[in-house]
Structures are given as C-alpha cells and as structure tokens.
Amino acid sequence: MSRPEIKKFTEFYGSVLGKVFCRLLRAEIRKIWPDIFAGSPIKQTIAGIGFATPYLQIFLPRMERVIAIMPGGMGAIKWPRDLSLTAAADETSLPLPDNSLDRIILVHALEYCENMPGMLREIWRVLAPGGKVLIILPNRLSPWAHIAKTPLGSGQPFSRAQIAALLNHSMFQVLRTKCAVHIPPVSARPILKNHRLLDKIAHFFYPALGAVVWAEAEKRVYAVRGNPKCEKAKLLVPIPQGILSPG
C-alpha cells in the first residue's frame, strides 16, 4: 500500500482541522499514560514511529530521551527546530539495540506497512521487557477513513478487534483499546471553535465512531510457540547492522 509523502502530513497538521485533531488526540494520550505527565520527569526513553512528531512534542519535557523514526519512502524532517531527534529508517529493521526503549508510539505508521507482522516483531525486539506500545490507527467505522484529504483516508483502517488480534499474535499483551477524536472531518468554523464540547457529545452518543482506534499493549517476554508442551519459549532476534545511537 502506498505511503503518503511527508508533505501530506505537514499540510494536514498545519491546517486548522489538523491542529484541532492533534489537540484532541494529545489530550487522549495524556489520559492513556498519566504517569508520564504527573510529578517529576521520568528517566525513560520513548520513540515515535511514523509521523509522530506532533505527539512526541508533549513528551520532550517529561522523558529523558525522545526519538522520532520516520519510515523510508515517506521522507523525513528535522525535529524539533533547535536540534534534530529524527532518523529515517526501515520500520522492519530499526537502528536501535534490543530492549532499548521503554515506550513506543505509532502514529500514521502501521496502516501503511506491507509487512505488519515484521514491523511489530521489530518493535517487540527494541522494546524493553514490560515496556508499552501505543498504536493509533484509522478507525474502519469512521467517516475519517473514507476521506482522502486527511492522512486517515489512506492506508488500511482497523477495528478495535482487528488491532487487538494482530497484537496478541505478535507477542504483545493488549491492555486496552478505545476510539478517540469524535468530531467530523470538516473545517466548518462552528465545529472547530467548539471542538471539545462536540467531541464529548459525539463520544457519548457514538463511542465507536471516533476518527482513530488506539491500542495500548505490553511486551510479552515469553510465549508458547508451536509445541504446546513447552511452557516458555523465549524469542531471540538478531540486532540489525548499522545501529544508530539515539544519544
């Protein structure tokens, strides 16, 4: 499936609709991981894969290290402005050591990947034991998934059940799934001006029609593979060549 060029993402997030969408999704992310945004900054490392920089911004003052990885074919931009924490890489061969990340967030990433199991296996490899991944995807039931002018209108949309099944099959323990961002994909001023109120009302009446579905999952270190008599089988994956230090 074709991955949009980075220009499409930057144009969307530079628009009024894109800024409102980002604001609502950032608020949702803060609710999902409240431990990061309460109290003192935590000594953990997070990577955003895909076009995640609009959301990684809120982690910069809260975590020890923040990395943005943009898949090949999309292009890359310098982020943030005063320094560069961005790398371009193949999503099935991340330039990071095993067990090197505490958290991973995927935005505008998995839905474009032709090898989803391979990408999730690589995320499993670089995530520390007990580490958490947050995957945000277009909601199959939402009107957003059928409008090509936004990044959610291309790539493969998902249901909550589909992403949960994919994660369970990829050696992750799914903690929870939900829909988010319930405003319609239109740039009408009354809607954008009152987006928080409208989002709450739409979520109350139509909880399954959010623009995105998200799933939070935890790395499962042991899993049964093939032989049902084997209680624990540890997966060992070789480190790819050309490791890039995030420091």
Can you tag this structure with a few keywords?
single chain, alpha/beta, Rossmann fold, seven-stranded mixed beta sheet, 8 helices, 9 strands, disordered C terminus
Describe the 3D structure.
The strands form 2 sheets. A 7-stranded mixed β-sheet has the order 3-2-1-4-5-7-6, with helices on both faces. It is globular. It has a single domain, classed as Vaccinia Virus protein VP39 (Rossmann fold, 3-Layer(aba) Sandwich). It is built from 8 helices and 9 strands. It is an alpha/beta fold.
Short description:
The protein is of the alpha/beta class and 247 residues long. 29% of the residues lie in helices and 25% in strands. The chain has helices at residues 6-14, 16-32, 34-37, 53-56, 116-126, 160-169, 189-193, 195-205, and strands at residues 42-50, 63-71, 86-89, 101-107, 127-138, 172-180, 212-219, 222-223, 233-234.
